Amino acid sequence: MEKATEPEESMATENRQNSVTSMTRIISHLQEHCPDLGNVRHLYEAVVSKYDGVHATFDDGHTSMVLTTYDYLGLLGDERLNDAAKEAVDFFGTGCFGSRVLGGSLDLHRQLEQELAAWADREDAMVLSSGFMTNYTVLAAMAGPGAWVLADELNHISIDEGCQAAKNAGATVHVYRHNDVGHVAELLRQAPPEATKIVVSDGIFGMEGDLLDLPGLSELCRRHDALLFVDEAHSLGVIGPNGGGVQDYYGLPGTVDLVMGTLSKAIPASGGFVAGSQELIAALRLGARGYMFSGASSPMSAAAGLAALRVIQQEGAERRSLLERNTKHLRRRLEAAGLHPEDVPGPITPLILGEDHIALEVARLCQERGVFVLSMVPPAVAPGTSGLRLNPTAAHSPQNIDFACDVIIEAVRAATGRAED
Questions:
Q1: Cβ distance 73 to 319 under 8 Å?
Q2: Among the four residues 123, 292, 314, 326, which has the most C-beta atoms within 10 Å?
Q3: What is the DSSP letter of 40?
Q4: HSE toward the beta carbon, residue 234, CA cutoff 13 A
Q5: If you average pLDDT over residues 318-344, what whole number do you get?
Q6: What HEC string does 282-344 produce?
């Protein structure tokens, strides 16, 4: 083999140095956008080796009661869902052989979409591979050049990213003050009459737990010919007399033009969906790139989602009653200890503690003492509002809630030096 010349060796060395420099810069750029978790970073992305619906066993062998799950109705691990997923694997295999438009659509997908549409009180639905992808894809597809998109400042990051994609495509994006209908009205009055107008909001805001002002927003959208797009990830199946989400809660059926939901919360599978008019969903199937060019969701996920939806239709009222019982019990116990959790309609229970280091220390102490909770710190929440986001489920017993409250109360006192009341 011919030996490299000195200039070639010098060039190779320079290329390696440039590569290292670029890699270092990329890592630094990523770290700038990461929360400062100090010495408790190991608390996040904990590896679970076993889960029974209430308790998780982690890879280091310890077991904790889980109070962070999105499994609001306690269906994760239900044998009916498991059996449906196993049957789908036996029949279809573990995956699909293409995107939905290139041969990857199964009859399971269409059954799921039809029943999701009925659940959301819409004509049709479209299932995508994740909730994040759903928001991103749909907003990017709907908002072209000249469109005006108005988004709540506390929306989920997937909506923010979808708005950015819409902006890159030529849309004008405005962020309005949280739940400020007056601000929305002001922005809609500024929009050109010929502009496509889209107002997008979470139904239940994931960090704060509060609801959008649907009566105000829906009235504004009708008056200004704006499409109302609501992310019901935390609300469908969970709130409202019939578990129908924010429209059901407010008694305003049909006021949301496009409903988004996930298949990873009240429905414990994976994926996301949008439900709307038949004409709009048909247009999205060929106009939304994240749908056209992503592999279809697995047969197991579709089957588990369909089974979960059917169980919810039968048992939803009872499960929501248990969820409400546990949520109220949790809040009463914490309030009695002087901790003042947020009192919001859904099960998400924010417990604001203030400074980042206090929230992180409380989470560490809770995990050490057998309750798996995590702290919410910037950029997930505003500076000075760090704390815990507690999610009881229908699967918890009152004794589980009492144990969790005892641990949380003691951890807060230890982290803050607060004396017992």
A1: yes
A2: 326
A3: G
A4: 25
A5: 97
A6: HHHHHHCHHHHCCECCCHHHHHHHHHHHHHHHHHHHHHHHHHHHHHHHHHHHHHHCCCCCCCC
Whole-number Å distance between alpha carbons of 124 and 117: 5
**Contact call for residues 73 and 323 (beta carbons, < 8 A):** yes
Using alpha carbons, list the distances in angstroms from residue 392 to 73, 184, 266, 328, 404. 9, 33, 12, 10, 10
Please give the Cα distance from 277 to 217 (Å, whole number): 19
**Which residues share a beta bridge with 258?**
229
Would you say how long the chain is, in residues? 421
Strand order in the sheet with 349-354: 349-354, 386-390, 375-376
Distance CA 325, CA 316 (A): 14
Q: Could you read off the pLDDT of 66-107 as tens digits, one per residue?
A: 999 999 999 999 999 999 999 999 999 999 888 988 889 999
What is the per-residue pLDDT across 264-323, written as a single tens digit (0 to 9) for each?
A: 999 999 999 999 999 999 999 999 999 999 999 999 999 999 999 999 999 999 999 999
| DSSP class of 379 | T
Query: What's the pTM value of the predicted model, to 2 decimals?
Result: 0.91
- HEC string of 253-297 equals CCCCCEEEEEEECCCEEEEEEEEECHHHHHHHHHHCHHHHCCECC
Contact, 112 vs 137, CB < 8 A? Answer: no
Q: Could you tell me which residues come within 8 angstroms of residue 293 by beta carbon, excluding any fewer than 6 positions away?
A: 99
Residue 137 φ then ψ, to 5°: -65, -45
User: 110: exposed, middle or buried (C-beta count within 10 Å: 0-12, 13-18, 19+)?
Assistant: middle
Residue 360 tokens, joined: 């992180």
pLDDT surpassing 70 at residue 165: yes
Strand partners, 228: 199
DSSP for residue 214: H
